[in-house]
Amino acid sequence: VRVPRVYRTEAVVLKAFDYGEADRILTLYTPQHGKVRAIAKGVRRIKSRKAGHLEIFTRTALLIARGRQLDVVTQADTLEPFRPVRDDLWRIAACTYVAELVDGFGMENLTNYPLYALTVQTLRRLAESSSLDLTLRAFELQLLGLTGYRPQLHRCLQCNDVIVPAQNRFSSKMGGVLCPSCGISDVGARAIGIPALKLLRNLQTNESAVLAVNGLDETVEREVESLLRDYILYRLENRPRSLAFIDRLRAEAAGARV
Ligand SMILES: [Zn+2]
User: Fold this and answer.
1) CA of 186 to the centre of ligand 1 (A)
2) How far is the CA of 158 from the centre of ligand 1 (A)?
C-alpha cells in the first residue's frame, strides 16, 4: 500500500464535472506538476468550505493528497476568482477555449511553469480586455511556442530561404510558412496574405504591443484565426467544444448587426 503523500500547489481549474452524490472531479493545471486530475470530495454539499474555491477558471491554492488513481483535494483557497468572466458569454466562451487548449496541450507530471504563467495571464486579460479575439490569438501562438509547436514564420520550411512579401503558403502539417516555389511541397498548404503573416509574427514576438493597438483589420484577424485554428486542430486529438460556442456567438452578433 502506497502511503498518500501530501503536497501544496496552486492551480487553475480547467475542467470540473460532478461525480457521485457530492463529489467533483477536476482537471487542474499546476506550475510544478503540469496537469493534475483530482477529486474534491463532498464539495457539492451546502456546507462544504471548498466549494467556491474550486469553480472552473479559478486560480486557487490547494493541499492535495496523492491517491492511487486520483489525487484528492483536501484544502482549497481562492487566489483569483476571475469573476467578471462569469457574467459575459463571450468571456466564458473564450476562457473555456483557453482551458480546453491547456488541457489538450498540457502534459501530466511535466513541469511547464511558462505555460502555467501564460494561462493565468490570459485569464486575467480575458477578464478585462476588450479585444478578446486578439487575446486568444496571442495565447494560441505563445501556447504553441511553449509546447514545442512554435510555427516557423520567417524562413521557408522546405528550402530555408528568408520569407519575403510574396504569395507564400502556410502548412499546418509542416508547422509554418512555405515560399512561393516550395508551396507545392504540401498540397494542403493555404495561401497566407502579407498582412496576416505580419500579424502572426508580431503576435509571436511582441504580443503586448499588438494587444495595445485598437482597430486592426477584421479580415486579417479572421484570416489569422482560421490559419491558427487549422494548425491547432491538426495538432490536437480532440476538437475543442468551445469552438462551436464561439462560432455561434459570432454568427448571432453578425445577425444582430444586419
Ligand atoms: Zn522554399
Assistant:
1) 11
2) 5
Q: What is the DSSP string of 204-257?
A: HH-HHHHHH-----HHHHHHHHHHHHHHHHHH-SS--THHHHHHHHHHHHHHHH
Residue 44: is its pLDDT beyond 90? no
Q: What is the pLDDT of residues 105-122, one digit of tens each?
A: 999 989 999 999 999 999
Helix (H) or strand (E) holding 212: helix 207-212
- 216: which 3 cell numbers? 486592426
d(CA 58, CA 158): 43
Q: What is the pLDDT of residues 161-201, one digit of tens each?
A: 999 999 999 999 999 999 999 999 999 999 999 999 999 99
Judged against a pLDDT cut of 60, whether residue 52 lies above it is answered with yes
- Grid cell digits, residue 147: 509546447
Q: Is the pTM of this model over 0.85?
A: yes
- Tally DSSP H helices, then E strands, for the chain: 7, 8
Q: Which residues pair with 17 in a beta bridge?
A: 25
- Report how far ligand 1's centroid is from the alpha carbon of 160 (Å): 6
Distance CA 140, CA 151 (A): 11
pLDDT exceeds 90 at position 255: no
Q: Which of 146, 147, 4 is nearest to 70 (CA)?
A: 4
Q: What is the identity of the amino acid at 209? A: A
